[in-house]
Amino acid sequence: MASTSVKSAYHAGIRDGAPFMLVIAPFAMLFGVLATEAGLSVFETLSFSVVVIAGAAQFTALQLMAEEAPTLVVLASALAVNLRMAMYSASLTPHIGGAPLLQRAIAAYFTVDQSYAVSVTKYEAAPDMSPQEKIAYFFGTVTPVCPLWWIFTLIGALVGEAIPASFALDFAVPITFLAIVAPALRTRAHIGAAITAAFLSLLLFSVPFNLGILLAGMGGMMVGARIEAMTEEATS
Questions:
Q1: What ranges do the domains of the chain cover?
Q2: Taking Cα atoms as reference points, which of 194, 172, 173 lies closest to residue 183?
Q3: By C-alpha distance, which of 141, 142, 134 is closest to 96?
Q4: What value does the CA radius of gyration of the chain take, rounded to a whole number of Å?
């Protein structure tokens, strides 16, 4: 019975993660194209996606490399963008932190925006899920996402400039993150943080090396934290 419920959770994760396939394919292909245009070999491009497996950080690093930014700036910017993974991990720990070490290690590697957003939403909606069902569900969410990221990165790197500009693959980048963020905007703190970050990113657009995005993210987190603190004070 337990085995059946775990399998059902895994299949549910696949179903909930499947819609992201529509944007992951062009998103990954775009990275493959841009990476080879920036001078990376096909092997280096694919290795980038396999090792880092974090679209936002990869695009940030790639653009800074193309602008010949100092190596320290490239590394610091990519790391700053990926710091959200630390927050994702902290949020997931109460749900899957009790899983065996190997499963936790694999889950850490596959913790991406899509797997986190879908899993946390499911865990909050179904608090009665067992730890085994939760980890199975998590792995289900990445099954249709991560393999496509690798495959279409390779396709983009191999095809390169042969893809017509009219395909406009870059549409997938904002759509992907809108699909992730929108369902999570459930409180005033969430909405305040998102609006602040969006406003600041536009205001700081001209800051060199795309550092304005990092500053906008920090500003959004500060505003969100302040709104949350004010809300807790008002209800206590």
A1: 2-184, 185-236
A2: 194
A3: 134
A4: 19
For 170-212, what is each residue's pLDDT tens digit? 555 565 556 556 656 667 877 888 889 889 888 988 887 667 7
Rounded-to-integer distance, Cα 169 and Cα 33, Å: 10
pLDDT tens digit sequence for 117-145: 899 989 988 989 999 999 999 999 999 99
Instruction: In whole angstroms, give the CA distance from residue 62 to residue 67.
Output: 9
For the record, the structure tokens of 105 come out as 């290690």
CA atoms 139, 145, 149, 150: torsion sign? positive
d(CA 51, CA 166): 30
Contact 28, 176 (CB under 8 A): no
H or E segment and range at residue 232: helix 211-235
